[in-house]
Amino acid sequence: MTCLAMDTTSSKLALALIKGEDMFCLSREVGKSGHSALLLPAIDELMKENGVAPETLDAVAVNVGPGSFTGIRIGVSMATSLAFATGAKRIAVTSFDIIAYNRGRIIAAVDAGHGNVYAAECDGGKTLSTRFIEADGDDTALEGAIYEPIGDAARTLAAVVMKKAERGEFSAVFEPFYMRRSQAEREKE
User: Fold this and answer.
1) Considering the domain boundaries, does residue 102 fall inside one?
2) CA distance 130 to 127
3) What is the torsion angle, in degrees rounded to the nearest 10, for the CA atoms of residue 170, residue 176, residue 180 and residue 183?
4) By residue range, what is the domain housing residue 15?
5) Cα of 101 vs its chain's centroid, Å
6) What's the DSSP call for residue 108?
7) 116 occurs within a structural domain
8) Does the pLDDT at position 123 exceed 70?
9) In what order do the strands lie in the sheet with 2-7?
10) Is 180 part of any domain?
11) Is residue 127 part of a domain?
């Protein structure tokens, strides 16, 4: 299988290219608004360096969230476009899948900005339940929470994608996983 996987949900860009048994990764710190400018050139670089043409992709994977609203939109849009243009299968991954990979029972947590947190109870890499915890909410639910994957994020993304592909966990569409309404939607009310 040849698969391109991307994660644009945080200030880091993580890309993984899976080509048979080989895995090629690229990680870059892009800041709050760098994904829109750097994602396509980084994909092009990774694929050209490793001799993969877009039309040869069997699958495209993307982290659908939770995380940065803009980052999720950028990643989901790019992955959807690539899958549509190439006919590749779609593999949706969550931030919780990546954090919980290769771990037992944990609370996986993702920074939601302004002191807020997206949290999930996970066991064996599976998400059991999720919740949004406000900055002034019950922070005891976050005791011992884990915010980072084991090792390099791009390599962990690739490992999660490979497992999902092996199990045949493909998606018809990429559905963003926001867990709450955007700031613009909240301020509109």
Assistant:
1) no
2) 8
3) 170
4) 2-95+152-188
5) 12
6) E
7) no
8) yes
9) 22-29, 12-19, 2-7, 59-63, 89-93
10) yes
11) no
Residue pLDDT, tens place only, 51-106: 999 999 999 999 999 999 999 999 999 999 999 999 999 999 999 999 999 999 99
SS3 content of the chain, % helix, strand, coil (to 5): 35, 30, 35
Task: Decide: 57 and 84 in contact? Cβ < 8 Å.
Answer: no
Tokens of 48: 């050209």
Do residues 63 and 6 touch, judged by C-beta distance below 8 A? yes
Peptide bond into 66 cis (omega under 30): yes
**In terms of C-beta density within 10 A (0-12 exposed, 13-18 middle, 19 or more buried), how is residue 13 classed?**
buried
Burial of 20 (0-12, 13-18, 19+ CB in 10 A): exposed
Contact 40, 79 (CB under 8 A): no
The span from the CA of 11 to the CA of 35, in Å, is 8
Query: In this predicted structure, what is the pLDDT of residue 59?
Result: 98
- 170 and 89 in contact (C-beta within 8 Å)? yes
Number of structural domains, the chain? 1
Q: List pLDDT tens digits, range 146-183.
A: 999 999 999 999 999 999 999 999 999 999 999 987 76
Task: Read off the CATH number of the domain in which 160 is found.
Answer: 3.30.420.40
The model's pTM is 0.94
